[in-house]
């Protein structure tokens, strides 16, 4: 096996400089944009075929082909005439998808390859699963789902930590961690030993050790974030770095394995960042306010996925734009579990 490419330390400074709002870059460098006409592409998945999949507010997953064509998967109404509001999405090995439903009906739903929708996870430990933020599979064939809080209303529970993580594996479905301060995206490390998770209103990236039965223990703080930053999206790279995307502030950080933090993108609109911070401190920050935030160029980025033949092209999902922002990374992303699935 070829050793992963390791970036020169200066490469991170060059990347940050190239992504600055006033950067003078050559064509094809810096911050770019791909595709158009997308509808709430909050989550992005990449695939070895070159196809990119994004969540779509029409209750579906949108498949974006390398030739520029696209295909909508799903989009049917569910019980009661309502539709799914896809947030996180996870591919399945038959070409279907699991969808974290941020809509009022909640739960994790399955969209089959033919577009048929059905409930996949609606209860755990005897309790209903309400709004689900994120769902992801890992290399061991397990599925992890993140519920941000037991109170799923638009008035964020800023001062309580009721978020939890659900694991579904061969042994069944159960809660494996709770007491999280608004659980957002999570990722399993390359060696399968650790679970990384963003706690949005705890403003930290946390890490658990994964036990033999999937239990999450020995929680520790990997990084903390300051004013205006609310960690949302999370991706890991081939060097063991963790990339954190902050909703509202449109900032992207990379946390190196030794804990050093590098600001990759700071596209915050100063007035918006101040307003979000003031609302957070006052305890009034809510879902519509955070969702409506914009950066100077970015349209409220929420996620990041590495793709391309060398896994070094970063694609960023967002809440308020109709395209994907993109740039080239000095190192490859960690290959997702579904990378080579049909």
Task: Give a description of the structure.
By secondary structure, the protein is mainly β. It has a single domain (11-328), classed as Neuraminidase (6 Propeller). 8% of the residues lie in helices and 41% in strands. It contains 3 helices and 26 strands. The chain has helices at 9-18, 270-282, 287-291, and strands at 32-34, 44-46, 52-56, 60-64, 70-74, 86-91, 97-101, 108-111, 117-121, 123-124, 127-128, 134-137, 143-147, 163-169, 172-180, 183-188, 194-199, 204-210, 216-224, 230-236, 242-247, 251-255, 261-266, 301-307, 313-318, 324-328. The strands form 7 sheets. Strands 1-26-25-24 form a 4-stranded antiparallel beta sheet, with no helix packed on it. It has a 4-stranded antiparallel beta sheet with strand order 2-3-4-5, with no helix packed on it. Strands 6-7-8-9 form a 4-stranded antiparallel beta sheet, with no helix packed on it. Strand 17 (194-199) and strand 18 (204-210) form a beta hairpin. The longest helix is centred in the C-terminal third of the chain and has 13 residues, at 270-282. The radius of gyration is 19 Å and the shape is globular.
Summary keywords:
342 residues, mainly beta, Neuraminidase, 4-stranded antiparallel beta sheet, 41% strand
What's the gist of this structure?
With 342 residues, the chain is mainly β. It contains three helices and 26 strands.
- Indicate the CATH class: Mainly Beta
Q: Which strand order do you get reading across the main beta sheet?
A: 1-26-25-24
C-alpha Rg (nearest Å): 19 Å
How does the major sheet shape up? 4 strands, antiparallel
CATH topology: Neuraminidase
Task: Write down how many β-strands occur, each being a DSSP E stretch of 2 or more residues.
Answer: 26
H and E string: HEEEEEEEEEEEEEEEEEEEEEEEHHEEE
The tally of domains stands at 1
Helix run count: 3
